[in-house]
Amino acid sequence: MAVKAPEVTIDAIADKVFADQRIDAEEALFLFEHPNLNDLATLAHHRRNQKSDPKTVTYVVGRILNYTNVCWVRCKFCAFYRVPNHEEGYTLLEDEILEKVRDTVEQGGTEILFQGGLNPKLKIDWYLDIFSKIKAQFPSVNLHALSPAELIYIAHISKLSLEDTLKKLKEVGHESIPGAGGEILVDRVRKIIAPYKDTTDEWLQCMRTASGLGMKSSASMMFGHVETMADRVEHLGRIRDLQDECAPFRAFVTWSFQPEETNLPVSRKATAFDYLRTIAVSRVFLDNFDHLQLSILTQGPKIAQIGLGYGADDFGSTMIEENVVSAAGNKFILNSEEFERLISDAGYEPKRRNTRYELS
Question: Is residue 286 within 8 Å of 240, Cβ to Cβ?
Fold first, then answer.
């Protein structure tokens, strides 16, 4: 006679979490549908305290430097891009880029999150040149640069393998890779929201290849569009499996889709409750991630403070500048003093870090 599988209950999941055991996909889906957010907060906060200092919340001072908005991919969720030859398209000049980096450093910044579009005019030599000049003038800056989609495209138009592309970029100071472009790592979803973008396996392979070269990255998830809860769990499972395999990720960050001025209409935006639920379930499920970063940019300071009780331990970047997410919907860009006040008011000690999560 077949043995009946044990029923999934919140108590059974709690027993696993407090015994420091891993939950499975079925249990994660149960948590996404569990009505009591306080239960989720309790479990997520326990996981958070196991993985990072319970008393502190970290943040980094940095800038998202959007070097070009020219992109042929036409992702439906993006309000930032302009197709090639569009009158509003731009690519920053070398002097403009270096001035933005200088301004960041003068404001105490250590991280340049260098991202843009898939611009057919920019092959690898352009990136090698500008990265070399940034590092020559500002050697202490961490280049957290180029999403997997950008890297895959640069390799393609430069007629190089992805590994060779990453090796060349690493030689000139490219240190780590942001998790942008992950969206939802389910190809059914990706074909709807970004049909010309890299596949799930291509995104994961980029992070795997970078990890093999000693380049770390972050993982992300953009939710609240056409995905199901099961899709969210599948996404989390894919990045947890890769973290088990080769530990490429320093942190996980998730944010809700901002539909304004995009070509991806939704009946309603994700709520703050959905956001808190998502970070809590992510923290419980991603038991091999040390850090979970809040998205103040999309959620605002009040929800960010509450999120510190739902598994998050990092406020992310002060974002001296940002143009992609804030091209659609609200944006909340705060300075380091405001970050420290919010963290302190929530009962934690604020600590500044760099991209490598080393405290300053």
Answer: yes
String of b and e for 232-265 (b: at least 16 CB within 10 Å)? bbbbbbbbbebbeeeebbbbbbbbbbbbeebebe
Query: What Rg value do the Cα atoms of the chain yield, rounded?
Result: 20
| Amino acid at site 130 | I
Cα(261)–Cα(327) distance, integer angstroms: 8
3-state per-residue secondary structure call for 71-109: CCCCCCCCCCCECCCCCCCCECCHHHHHHHHHHHHHCCC
What residue type is 250 in one-letter code?
R
Q: 81: Cβ–Cβ under 8 A, 6 or more apart, which residues? A: 69, 70, 71, 73, 74, 75, 117
Give per-residue pLDDT as tens, 271-280: 999 999 999 9
- Map out the domains of the chain with their CATH numbers: 62-293 (3.20.20.70)
> What is the rounded distance in angstroms from the CA atom of residue 291 to the CA atom of residue 319?
19
DSSP H or E segment with residue 60: strand 56-60
What pLDDT band is residue 360 in, cutting at 50, 70 and 90?
confident
254 — phi, psi (to 5°)? -130, 150
| Beta carbons of 289 and 249 less than 8 angstroms apart | yes
CA dihedral 281, 285, 286, 290 (to 10 degrees): 70
Q: Determine the number of helices (DSSP H) and then strands (DSSP E) in the chain.
A: 14, 10
Confidence of residue 338 (pLDDT cuts 50, 70, 90): very high
| Predicted confidence (pLDDT) per residue in 31-81, tens digit | 999 999 999 999 999 999 999 999 999 999 999 999 999 887 777 677 777
Q: What is the pTM of this model?
A: 0.93
In the predicted model, what is the mean pLDDT of residues 163-177? 98
